[in-house]
Fold these 3 entries.
Entry 1:
Amino acid sequence: MQQTGGPDPRRPEKIHRYKPIPVGTPGSPSDDATPDYLNVLGMIFSMCGLMMRLKWCGWVALYCSCISFAHSRVNDDTKQILSSFMLSVSAVIMSYLQNPQPMTPPWST
């Protein structure tokens, strides 16, 4: 079964085979350090929220760990991301268990 539309419109000289970018080169997908930085920030803020009973630190930690989880790659260490997330959730829960009053922003006091 052959088409009667004339010559073949495909151009074989324009076909380029896919070559994956090596991991160490700049611009490769694995050099984005945003999830790592946010994971560390989330752990720092959650520890501050737990130790100093600051509700806003717990919420910032939860925000950072959610962004870190959203930007993480499949081959990242899921145990560390999950532990950071659980630590930030526990910081929020513990700060509200110790003081159930609504949170007052730090700039209003």
Note: The longest helix spans residues 78-98.
Entry 2:
Amino acid sequence: MYRWCTDEVEPHDRFDYWREVRSKGLFGVTAELERERRADFYGEFSLRQLGGAGLVELKASHYKVERSTTDIAYAPSDSICVYQQLGSGGWFGGMRGSDFSIANGSFATSHTDLPYRTVPLGDGGFHLRILKIPVRNIPAQDKRMRELSPRMFNDPGLAPLLGACFADLDEVAAADDGANGAQASSSAQASLVQALAHLALIERGIVRPGSRLGQAALRTARLSQARRLIARHLQDPNLAPVMVADLLGVSVRHLHMLFEAAERSFSQTVTDERLQQSRRLMREAPDRLIADIATSCGFESLATYYRVFNAAYGMAPGDFRAQGSEGH
């Protein structure tokens, strides 16, 4: 991962550097800010290359951004962008379609080589993630992809799926489990990137939900969301396939099919999540009673917790805590 922030530049040079080197050189956009406000400018971003795409997270104080025809000619990209708004919101304008505002937690998509203007709403500045996927890396080849001016996702059913995929992409990218883990991580990254690309194209009417590519994207995204629903409800005594299927809006049979394709059943996934959560709690709260931890993670009894933990890790929870290591 590459990280950079304006703290690395002298205060009086920060906005000029951000405008000329970062905005124009890296992102291919024109940045503008009133001269009297430049001394207080702050910006930071991270960039990861994963799954054939680039994932940027950007935070910056208030300024104006434009991707003009001159910018496009100078730095063509031919990519699809999926935006996740994390800050106070933003405004997009200057497109062939209508202007729009995007709120915190919402998503938008566009092709990179179409003009637009954007500014943050409120004084909080920019905070967003941008997944930039080269068109050549998207299986659903369609000339209409190059006609996608910025537009917000309007299908409320897609928002939680997009959010789950973005969250999983962050986690998979951060994982580092050695060479074999890296290969598995690379495969997972590619799957999530393709899912996000095709969910965007489903929203824009280019990929049909019932097509092979559409179904694959929905399966990947629903599995991501199902895992997150499990993690969110570990303490719930009603955590069961029927509950998660209802929250996901699919049948119980379809839910089981999602997990079967991932080679970890629903019950195995629940147990894994509970064990991992218990390990985190033992590290974070070394004085907390193990029985309390087991209950808080949803295990029906202390005896069950000890049996399952020993079967998974070859040691008792107390021995794990004594070692103070997460590598066992």
Note: Residues 144 and 228 are 33 Å apart (CA to CA).
Entry 3:
Amino acid sequence: MPRMLDVSDDVRAEIGDEEADRLLAGDNSPGSYDCTSCRTPGDSAQERTSTVLFIGDETAVLAFAHATCLPSQVVKVAEEQLQGAVRSITGESDAAGGFPATAAQTVPAAPVAPVAPAAAEGQPQAAVLGITSGLVLLADELYPALVVEPTGPIARPGTTGGEDQFLTLLSEQGFQPLGQVQEAPAVLPGWSVLLAVGQLHAVLQPGSGGSPVAWWQAHQPLQVTDGWRTAASKLGKVVVFAAPVGTIGRQPREDLLRDALDKAAANGLLMAATMPLAGT
């Protein structure tokens, strides 16, 4: 039976016309499936369904999601992440190496821009971005939120100066400064938050070749709470806050996280952007 599948040009280019045509004809695609963005059932014979191809160094995984949850696309992810998602899908691991669900969670991430040289050693260090997930009340609506904070000062790529340029670099990417945490910021074009098998995997930014690339990427998938995932599914978007090192800290509860956000905003140290939700 033909399927109501959306196969983007990028996905078709990766899997080939023959395989794409088989999918559309229903020869190699599921009828019913669990949308791996919102985790609710879908039926490709009854409703528009997106094909999403996740590509690692050696592995590729074709997944399905409601077209209303995310568009058909190709997403490049780390091989370890993709293998973890495969283990989770096939039942080899309960949470693909994920973290236990708590109200607010923090997970270390991949290295980003080099920080200023350490004064004692005189050698460049690598800063990483930590992410905390939680629900934040904005304009009487509970939003799924991510709070990004590096482990050290972020220098502009190619420089060795000691000044932290994290907020400036975010501003150049389109993040907005927040003086108060009251309303959701504008949507940042080309950026998205990636859920895979109901877990947080990456924050994606536009890539030079047209396909999204990871701006932040978890070493291990972060298992968000049911409440966070439900809010993300309902709204289809996530608010991403960002602040310099030492501003927010690791907050174990959402009320403490909100207090830290309010203080950062009052001190002019908080940037934010709203991003569409993507998934596997």
Note: Residues 81 and 220 are 7 Å apart (CA to CA).
